[in-house]
Task: inverse folding
């Protein structure tokens, strides 16, 4: 059936067509009259997907636009935001909402939770398709109520966004505070152990004392080397003298050559022996001059022997003194080494304790820095959400819209009326055109009498 045929069917059954159309229009008009008037104020928010850390100033990469907008939409429609709106506007004390709650639930349950569920279903959120703008609207019986509820939803959402941003940092801050107390105790305990060890060892945190002990040990070692050299020299001199005395070859000894008294005695002995030789050649051994010269030689030899023995005793005494000095210096060196080893051992233990203090202090400083950062982040009130437009009371209601509804009802009524006429025509077919005779009756049309035009009355 083409459009012309549909038109002819509708025209021929115009009463039914008009009846259906008028019925639909009247039904829609009745719905418009019954439908409560609803106003819909709207606020706009901008979501910042790329921002900087307010503490460190570093750039924070943003999420994908579709992901973050979908997340924010779910947050706005959440029960948490609805509860904040109810608490902010004190709706649990509003008689109108109290009456609605009692009527719906007979006063059973929590009115706050019941309102939150209703509000979460009613709030309208429209995220932008190619922008970071989110539009929030909430229906109301008048424009003022709608604007108030919409703005309350906007503020509650921003507050919730701040809480979601700061809540993890707040929990971290509490955890860091507990850890910092433990780190502080570790630092105090390490410092106390170090202080107790310093008091017990009488060592401060400086290396001056051990440097003095090392210098003292070096000085003792130097003195010991000098004493050992003197001892070895005395022993060599004594051995040379003993050998020279055994061989009666003392003239070449350094100690003899360097002794002026011995050299004088040797000279005197040589002179006395020369005189004795001369006298012995002239006089008999009983002659007084012979006896005098002989006595002088004996006296000088005795003095020479006594002086040689004195020199030998001096060498022996020098060797004994050097040996005692070496023994004392070796003992002092051993004691100083032991004292230095003990001092180093004490300092090593103090170094271990000092490193423990430094390690605990570094851990405490690092934790304190992170704790301060987390504490600042938990107290920050900068949100990634900005209000672009606040909701204002609309001049016209969002529902109902009589003109639009009637236009749509008229278009829908035309379709329904035409469909009703076509359905009726298909159940009760009639010949309306000459072309219908061959189609429905199988007869040929030989001629067609035109419709006579009606005459207008004179």
Result:
């Amino acid at each position: 059936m083409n459009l012309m045929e549909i038109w002819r069917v509708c025209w021929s059954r115009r009463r039914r067509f008009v009846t259906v159309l008028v019925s639909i229009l009247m039904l829609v008009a009745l719905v418009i009259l019954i439908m409560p008037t609803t106003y819909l104020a709207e606020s706009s928010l901008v979501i910042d997907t790329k921002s900087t850390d307010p503490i460190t100033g570093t750039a924070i990469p943003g999420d994908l636009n579709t992901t973050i907008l979908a997340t924010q939409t779910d947050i706005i429609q959440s029960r948490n935001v609805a509860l904040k709106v109810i608490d902010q506007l004190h709706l649990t004390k509003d008689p109108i909402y109290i009456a609605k709650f009692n009527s719906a639930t007979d006063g059973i349950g929590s009115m706050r939770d019941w309102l939150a569920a209703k509000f979460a279903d009613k709030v309208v959120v429209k995220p932008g398709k190619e922008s970071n703008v989110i539009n929030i609207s909430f229906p109301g019986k008048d424009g003022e109520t709608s604007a108030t509820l919409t703005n309350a939803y906007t503020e509650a959402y921003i507050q919730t966004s701040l809480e979601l941003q700061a809540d993890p940092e707040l929990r971290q801050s509490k955890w860091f505070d507990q850890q910092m107390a433990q780190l502080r105790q570790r630092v105090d305990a390490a410092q106390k152990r170090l202080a107790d060890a310093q008091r017990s060892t009488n060592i401060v945190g400086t290396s001056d004392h051990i440097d003095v002990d090392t210098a003292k040990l070096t000085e003792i070692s130097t003195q010991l080397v000098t004493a050992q050299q003197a001892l070895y020299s005395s022993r060599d001199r004594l051995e040379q003298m003993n050998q020279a005395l055994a061989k009666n070859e003392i003239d070449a000894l350094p100690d003899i050559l360097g002794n002026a008294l011995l050299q004088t005695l040797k000279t005197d002995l040589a002179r006395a022996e020369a005189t004795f030789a001369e006298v012995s050649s002239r006089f008999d051994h009983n002659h007084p001059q012979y006896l005098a010269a002989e006595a002088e030689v004996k006296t000088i030899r005795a003095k020479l022997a006594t002086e040689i023995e004195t020199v030998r005793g001096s060498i022996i005494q020098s060797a004994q003194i050097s040996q005692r000095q070496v023994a004392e210096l070796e003992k002092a060196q051993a004691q100083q080494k032991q004292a230095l080893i003990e001092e180093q051992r004490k300092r090593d233990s103090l170094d271990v304790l000092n490193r423990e203090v430094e390690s605990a202090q570094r851990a405490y400083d690092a934790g304190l820095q992170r704790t301060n950062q987390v504490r600042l982040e938990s107290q920050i009130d900068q949100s990634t959400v900005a209000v672009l437009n606040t909701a204002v009371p609309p001049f016209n209601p969002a529902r109902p819209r009589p003109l639009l509804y009637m236009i749509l009802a008229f278009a829908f009524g035309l379709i329904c009326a035409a469909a009703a006429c076509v359905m009726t025509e298909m159940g009760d077919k009639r010949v309306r055109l000459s072309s219908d005779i061959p189609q429905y009756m199988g007869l040929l049309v030989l001629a067609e009498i035109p419709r006579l035009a009606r005459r207008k009355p004179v």
